[in-house]
Design goal:
Layout: H1 3-21, H2 79-93, H3 115-118, E1 126-129, E2 135-138, E3 142-151, E4 156-166, E5 169-176
Antiparallel strand pairs: 1-3, 2-3, 3-4, 4-5
Length: about 180
């Protein structure tokens, strides 16, 4: 055996032990459940810029005998989700979307048939907003987000966005001063 081959043979067990010690040997089958890949919801901002979808294998759902529900349960969204929805909407409105591909046509944020859908010019003249001063309250069916918004006359007004929980996340129903 050559010297190089002999050295590689001596170093290989040390590399394997090192890889196992730092967790490189984990596979999706041995990884902790919180570390396993989860599918990204369709229409999520996380899918922006991707040109193809890859299928992620998920375990088969476990069937249980739960009492029937009278209405379909809405996913639990947080105050952060509500603020993020309003931030995306306002960033689009002032011409600075968070992602260049984030448009209403691709990723709708306005609830279909809502007051805002019927009167989309509610923010005409808006030039800035203060994302650091955004506050949110969540409820059973939606959320309310307040945010200071500045218009082209440099007048700042606190607006309240009413949001409704939907299958893909929050959508905006209305804006009030």
């Amino acid at each position: 055996m050559t010297r190089l081959g002999f050295r590689a043979f001596k170093v290989l067990p040390a590399v394997v032990l090192c890889a196992l010690a730092v967790g490189c040997g984990q596979t999706p089958h041995t990884a902790h459940s919180s570390e396993k890949a989860r599918p990204v919801p369709t229409g999520s901002l996380d899918t922006l810029g991707t040109t193809s979808e890859t299928a992620i294998a998920t375990p088969a759902p476990v069937t249980t005998t739960a009492p029937p529900q009278s209405a379909p349960a809405q996913p639990a969204f947080t105050e952060d989700d509500a603020r993020y929805t309003v931030r995306r909407y306002l960033a689009r409105w002032i011409g600075q979307p968070l992602q260049p591909d984030d448009t209403e046509g691709k990723y709708p944020l306005i609830c279909a048939g809502s007051t805002l859908a019927n009167n989309p010019g509610r923010l005409t003249g808006t030039t800035a907003f203060d994302a650091d001063r955004m506050t949110a309250r969540t409820g059973d069916t939606g959320a309310a987000v307040t945010v200071p918004v500045t218009n082209s006359s440099a007048v700042t007004t606190v607006l309240t966005f009413t949001l409704r929980a939907a299958a893909q996340g929050y959508c905006i129903v209305d804006i009030a001063s």
